[in-house]
Structures are given as C-alpha cells and as structure tokens.
Amino acid sequence: MGSPETADQNYPAEIIGYVEPWICSPGETVDVKISSTEPEYRYRVVRLIQGHQGPNAPPKRSEEIPSMQPGTGKGRFQVAQTGSYAIVQDFNQPNMQHGLHVSLYFQPYLCVSGHTQTLVSTLDHPTKTGFAAVLTPEGYVSFWIGTGQDIDVIETKFLPASRRWAHLSISLGTMSLEYTISPVALFAEQPPLAMYGHETFSNRMAHAVRTSLLFGAGYVSAPKSPSANTHPTNFFNGRIDSPVLRSLGPQAEILARYAFALKMSSDTIVDISGRGMHGTLINAPTRAVQGYDWDGTSVDWTKASYGYGAIHFHEDDLDDAGWASDFSIHVPTNLRSGAYAVEVEAVNGRARDSITFFVRSTPETRAKVGAKVALALSTFTYLAYANERMYDQSKPSRMLAPDPNFRIHKDEDFEKMERRTDLGLSTYDVHLDGSGVMYSSAKRPMLAMRPGHIHWALHRPREFSADLLMIGFLEHHGIPYDTVTDHDLHSKGVSSILPYNTVITGNHPEYPSLESLDAYTAYAKLGGNIMYLGGNGFYWASTLDSARPHRLEVRRGDQGVRTYTVPGGERVFSTNGQLGTLWRSRGRAPNYLFGVGCCGEGTGPGVAYKRTEASLDKNYAWIFEGIGEEELLGEHGFGGGASGDEIDKFDLRNGSPANAIVLATSIGHPDDFGIFPEDVGFPILHTLGTQTNEIRSDIVYYETVGGGAVFSVGSINWYCSLGWNGYENNIARLTMNVLQGFLQKGSTQ
Length: 749
Prior knowledge:
InterPro entries: ConA-like_dom_sf (IPR013320), DMFA2_C (IPR046540)
Domain N,N-dimethylformamidase beta subunit-like C-terminal: 286-729
Structural class: mainly beta
Region (Disordered): 52-73
Number of helices: 10
Protein name: N,N-dimethylformamidase beta subunit-like C-terminal domain-containing protein
Helix content: 10-25%
C-alpha cells in the first residue's frame, strides 16, 4: 500500500511513476500514478520507436499521439509501503472473560534485525487492548499486553536460532501470562532447551470483542509510542506455521485455527475452525515453503499431506505500491499495438520520466497496419529483472565482474534506483533475511524499463531499451508489424501470434511460462516462422498468477546461473503447482525448438561471428545476400561485437534438431566470459572463454515440420549490433535477408 509523503528538503528533483494496467487493449482506460517532488508537471503520450542515444546510434524516435490529449498535473511525492503480513480485519473473539490461548510455530530468518519484529498481534494502541508476541531488536521473544490503561512489556531470555523452528504457546489470563517456547529438532540435531515462564500484569488484561488479527506485523510500533500507526509496522522476517487461537475457561472454544497450506495459490489464509475467520495476505509473502514438520518425504506441495503449512514473511516484500492515481488515459479503439510512454516533465524543467506501457493489437488495428510480423516483447523478463539491485556489493546476490577495471554506469535511472528502496526487489535479489525473491510485481515503478536505459554493469542497452532497437529497425525499413507480449502468449496461447507469418523474439526472452512456450511450439508446428534474435532465451520457467496478472513467479533450483538457490522442496510454484527451475531441467531445453541453448556469459565486449562451410551452400545464399564469404559478422555494436552478454550454442546433446544447420559461430571470446554451470561436469576445468570452444554463439537455421523455419542467433548483443551505424551494417543486412525470406514463405493463416 502507498501513501503521500513529503520529500526531505535535500532530496533531489525526481519524477517517477507507473501505469495500471501496464498492458492494455484499445478502448480500455489506464490509470497513471506519479510521484513528483516538483509542484507541477506536464505530460503527453507517445509511441516509442527507438530510445538509445550515443555514438553510432540510430536517431532517437517517438511519435506523439494526438488523440490522447496532453495535460498538466499537480505534483505530490508518493512512497510505497513495503512489508508482507496476514490480516483478519474483523476478528471476532467472544467469551474472553477468562482469557486467551495462542499457539504457533515460528522460524526467524533475521533474528537481530535492529527493529522489533511482530509474530502475531491483536494489540490496539488507542484502546490499549489485545496483545502482541514480538522479537526485540536484539532477537529475544517478548510480549506486549494491553491492560486498557497501558501496554505492559514482558520480556523473556529466549533467543531463537536463525532458520530453526520453535513452538510458541501463550496463555493470557486475566492478570497473568504463562508461556512455553520449545525449539523444534531439525532431523537429528539436538535443539536448545525449552523455556517456560509466568508473569503478572500491572492491571487486568483488556480484549476487544472485535479487532484486527495480524501475523507478521502489527499496528503498534512501540509500547510507549505516543500515537497509533495508520499502517502495519514491525514486520517479521521469517516463517509462521499453524496458528491457533482459543478462549480460556469453562466455555472455551477455538476462535481460529489457520491452515496455511490451503488455498496455496491465493492471497487468502483459511480458518478451519468453522468460524469463518479467514484472512488476507498483503504484499505477497512467499507460500509453498517448508513448514515446521517438513521432512523431505514429499518435495511437491500439491502432493504432500503435511510439511507445507508455513508462510514466509519479509519486511521488504512489495506486491502493490498502492499509489493514488493522478489522471487516467483512454486508449483509442484504433490505436495500433506497440510500446508507449507517458512522458512527464516538471514545468520547471528539473525532472522528467518516460512511464512505459504496452498496447495490444486487435483484428481491426492489425488489418489497418497490414502486419505480417509480430515482435514478441519480453514482458516476463522485464518483470523478472524489475528494480534489480545486483550492483549492491553488500548482498549475496551481488553481480561480480572479473575485470579489475570494472565500473558501474551511474546515470539518472541508476540514481533513482539507489534512492527508491521502497519500490521492491527483482527475482534476482535476496531479501534482507537472505532468502530469495520469488515474486515480482508490475504494480510499482519499474525504473529500468525506460526507452534510453543503459545497463549499470554492461554499459549498453538491454531488455526493453534493446528491444526498441528492433522496433526502430522495422520502422526504418517500413516493415508492417505488431507487438505482442509474453503476457499475451501466456493468456491467449498460439492464437495471439497465429495471424502472423513471422514472430521475432526480444533480445532476452529468458522467462517463458509453460503456456507461452507451448504457444511458440504450436506456432512452429503450424508453419509459422520464428526469428530468435537474442540470447539466454527460454531458460528459466516462470508463471503468471491468473488472478493477479501483475505478479510473476520464478523459483530457481540448484542448476543454472543464479544469484541464490531455492531450497529443495520449495521449487514448485505456489501459483499453479508446476515445477519451477530451468526448462532444461524440466526436459524442455530451448535447443529443441530454437536450435540453441545458453552456454556462457560475460560483461566484457562481444565478439564477431565467422561463417561456417555449411553457410556457403547455395541453399542459404538468400540469407547471406550482400555479405562476403570471408566477412566477419557483427564486428561492431554498442556492446562490442554481436556475440556477447549471454550467449547460446547449438548442442545435439540438449536437443538441437538434427536437421539444423550452423551457419556461423562466434570467435575469440576472452576470459571474462565463463561457461554456464549446467554445461560443466566433474572435474570443473576449462571454464573461461579462451579455455574451451563450448563458450560461443551459433547462428542456426532449420526448417520445421509445419513448413516454416526457425532462425536463431544465440546472443543478447545481437540488437546492439543491429542498431550500429544507423542500421547500416551486416547484422542488419543479415536480419533483413532472413525476414524478407520468411515473408515470402507465406502465412500460417
């Protein structure tokens, strides 16, 4: 949830924002949410064509949309409220005259956090009613008790161990408290001794008949706080399992018994007491994780009868920034598909932003454009990387470069990222408690998704800004095209691309869902042509929450290039019950359909390709028209040569089609390129660029069973060379040769 704030007087001028929904159809209305330090701004809507600026770049291009009226607005500074928790808004607790008993299992991941962490709370500051069980800033268990007049603090000497379960049992009588805290043995490990205690209150404990029950947070920041919090605070970093609340005395009854393993794919916590005290999860804490009784018998929560009753809460979770809308935009019914931006600039000129969103095609807009080509924008990849902070060298998820002269590219986008720690994390980051981030949300500003973005480590366009180089290429050559998104492929399947003769991928289509991968496969079987013009594509499995399509889920296993490893038993998506990890680990390596699969990466400059003997066959002359037999391909680009960043190779062992032809292969990768771990066996040798031929890009072509063909280049850097010298280069020529050849093949329709 978000709230308006006032920026500190030393805070720099800044405008950021997001559009909701960020992917829309003609005829729909989108809400624009802006945070501005400046008092007034003006805005307009443009279609983005090409955003990269620099030496040898094509001209920056965008088109204002006259039918979407420009306007002005009053600036306000908005922040997002991070931190996940569960809340039962109207918790009914009758028959409390004898008190309350509460029990639960908890597993802290960040015992000493520097602030209070709340396990469970009904504490209400204005009325001084209810209770809270918390961890102190030093990590000890403590209890806060409302007496109607004050809030008593009862401390214990129990210091829980990090990543170890403990059972908490509290009996809250009218004038006293009894507690038992029992560590749970981990397999054969001897746990610490249990701790017992009995304490007396200063006055009779007070309960409200109806209150808010929270797990993982509370509304009271401190017992002696002068005022109540409007938002929950004191977020817990760790797991909670099997909470039970019951009244005490002769008429004791179960008030709530929560089974967190139920409705796993939802944001609901289920009360199985029969009283209907169900609750809601806020900011997407992690589900489908090991509980206190997990023993490895089952590693799939969809098949397990026990072991998955925990939810992992984090103080830095964010699912919805919750900002107020500043204005709305109606998308004209005749607006063509594409990437668009709301360009916002302070009237005083001190700050600006381009807030990106995407518009789908309709049969009418497609016919008007005459599109036979679809560019598939990698919106799942944009989400997976959204607001990544791998530059933070204090985190275990940091990205390290082997070059001692490596420097971070710091521009305005980067500085915004450093400042705006409230905007959530990417699936490449780890939480403050060291656990991996598994969900990413579009309901927040995604600061790297800007038309002129330069990657902080690679010093070149990447993801969205690189994909715009292909849009610029299509516009430059007058090729009629539409754009589709990963979201369209996921939700609509092959029907989203079937009208087109050729589908071109983005430069980094890394995160397909099963549905989107099936869409590409069905399209190829039906005779469609695919141009995979990127690298590290179709690598990690992901999925989209169908009830909350702004939320992407990724679960990394113990293979693949990764910044963290999801523990065993936690690699099945909470969203749909499918296995996460690599597509290669699931038996669908990208090689099967696209001919190549990722094998290496490096932050240094890319290198060129050299044609193979097979490419000289007259059957492939159309691909190399205007290109010499000895001519190196892609010697130049915004990231060095055309083979760079993350790269893919042809490999029959991983399923590359037997009829595929390797037309060119990269040459001369230096030692700042390393091999992917899944391509190395024991002993681990020959892992750097000069030490093995397994680190390379292959350009591959093959004809499919449906009569179409697949052309793959195996490099994220391809688009950075495509745009070099204003699209006047042999990578651009080769790309155009293939596209024109595919367009002459006919259509899937």
